Amino acid sequence: MKEKDIFGMAMKAYYFKKDKTPIIVHSPDFDDDEIAIKYLFRNFSEMPKTEQQALKLAYGDVLDVGCGAGSHTLYLQQKNIKVKAIDTSEGAIDIAKERGVLDAEVKDFYAESGKYDTLLFLMNGTGIIGNLINTDNFLNICKEVLKPDGQILIDSSDLSFLEDDEEPNDDLNRKYIGEIDFCISYKGEKSDYFPWLYMDFDLLKLAAQKNDFNCELIVEGEHYDYLAKLTIKND
């Protein structure tokens, strides 16, 4: 059965009908939260500094992964940077094209076969990894589609501040705090649960080094978030 395109439905309702009904995010680990659809259509000045810095650093042939409504791609196009935008949401790609994105495709990053100078993973870009066990696979695919002197620009958040300091932290079988299961709903339609990874910088750096990447902390945000740059180590 085809997964419901919750983001696509919400973006189309907002874009064509000015419907501001939010997407509801559900997780067994947290209280329900909301995603304001307007935020997915933000301009550069409305973006957090991690995203702004990533867009300033992007160069060459860029792949915008999980492009959503295309806000990052549109900014780069205005700077005459060549960008391909991909998303697994068919509705999101339709809206991105409506807004002026020139090269947009419904595609899973794990099926990408092109070659790029910059890979953009923004709005908690490590989420696409899903869980820690998939990190090596993710970085290997990045290596395949990245040009030799290319860069990965990826953001995430460190959720360790949510841990209870009073609880012992010696359970080796305990799930990493950044591994979260989510589902989303919109106007009575609900998605299946999916894994999403918030990865702290130290852990990302360790994984990068293990897979022959350099990893640099570019900027830290105001809410335990950060932007990192990864480049392939040259022998």
From TrEMBL:
Classification lineage: Bacteria, Pseudomonadati, Bacteroidota, Flavobacteriia, Flavobacteriales
A GO molecular-function descriptor: methyltransferase activity
Taxonomy, superkingdom: Bacteria
UniProt KW keywords: Methyltransferase, Transferase
Keyword Methyltransferase: yes
Single biological process term from Gene Ontology: methylation
Domain Methyltransferase: 62-150
Name of the featured protein: Class I SAM-dependent methyltransferase
